[in-house]
Design brief:
Bound molecules: S-adenosylmethionine
Number of helices: 11
Distance between the termini: 70 Å
């Protein structure tokens, strides 16, 4: 059977992906080759030649990527913090920028023993599982509404068993429903959320338009349609001293913090940039009712 150069195949795949408008064609061409060879990208140099049957399979994968099928769907998994998530049709692909929120959250509960953590809008379970993997002593509750996303989250949670048999508790339902988590009132040390927040009608990449579920991406005319009621629910879940971290659109660097500042029970509202330096998530701390002077016209909780 004839053998051909892997390097030449990757160069040709890179050109194919570049002409299809794929944002990082070289990385994706190499990742697909590594996936098909079952090695990491850094070890591709160990395989100078490939069989023609392998090449046919590789070209088929590259053609699907050129149709803008997300790389993560073709590979089937995505690393996120200390977790690896299975992803595919019906679930939002976790983004690297959300890892900044996870890093902040882990730091915030660093000296809390056996913290209670609630992850709202969990999708694949990414944030919940990254926190659980890093903090096996935590009780982590993950909430999601979409049935398809719930199936992926269940699957990912099933694959992850932390030290001492810990697992993430998954609940199906709408995070804006005040009654859904009533048993966790004032119980959480940390609430995290990466809700849908892109303003309706914003142009998005073909991978997002075609493969991320719309209910995972778009958050109403100003993008804050889920974030607004979610803040109320989150504030009620936090114990005094507990912290909240909510990811948002880079156009909401002022509007999202303003929503938190409008809550009398939240203080220390801080806006944080992502790895690319864009406004990405906002954090706050729960105080006892009445310990903070309300600004004129603000809400109660
Ligand atoms: C941007 S995705 C984030 C998923 C995951 N947290 C991550 O970072 O990869 C938002 C998720 O929120 C879910 N969602 C949207 N509105 C919701 C609601 N009202 N209640 C519960 N989940 C909701 C969507 O189905 C989607 O899975």
């Amino acid at each position: 059977m004839s053998r051909e150069s892997l390097r030449a195949a990757i160069i040709s795949a890179t050109a194919t992906l570049a002409s299809a408008g794929v944002p990082s064609p070289g990385v994706d061409a190499a990742e697909l080759a590594a996936h098909l060879l079952g090695v990491s990208r850094t070890r591709l140099g160990m395989t100078p030649l490939v069989e023609s049957s392998w090449l046919a399979e590789y070209r088929a994968l590259v053609a699907r990527r050129a149709e803008r099928v997300p790389l993560q769907h073709l590979i089937g998994t995505v690393p996120f913090g200390r977790a690896v998530l299975e992803v595919g049709p019906g679930v939002f692909i976790p983004r690297p920028e959300t890892e900044s929120l996870v890093a902040w959250a882990l730091d915030a509960i660093d000296d809390v023993r056996q913290p209670v953590v609630v992850d709202l809008c969990t999708g694949s379970g990414a944030i919940a599982l990254a926190i659980s993997a890093a903090r096996p002593d935590a009780r982590v509750i993950a909430v999601e509404r979409a049935p398809a996303a719930l199936r992926w989250a269940r699957r990912n949670i099933g694959r992850h068993v932390g030290a001492g048999g810990t697992t993430v508790e998954l609940r199906g339902g709408d995070v804006t429903d005040q009654r859904l988590l009533a048993d966790l009132d004032a119980a959480a040390d940390l609430v995290t959320a990466n809700p849908p927040y892109v303003p309706d009608g914003t142009p998005v990449e073909p991978e997002v338009a075609g493969f991320d579920p719309p209910e995972a991406v778009f958050g109403g005319p100003d993008g804050l349609g889920v974030i607004r009621p979610l803040i109320s629910v989150a504030a009620g879940l936090l114990k005094v001293g507990g912290v909240l971290a909510v990811e948002h659109d880079d156009t909401q660097g002022e509007s999202a913090p303003d929503l938190l500042r409008a809550r009398r029970v939240l203080t220390d509202v801080v806006e944080h940039p992502d790895l690319a330096g864009r406004p990405r998530f906002v954090t706050a701390t729960r105080v006892r009712m009445g310990t903070q002077a309300p600004a004129a016209g603000t809400l109660d909780q």
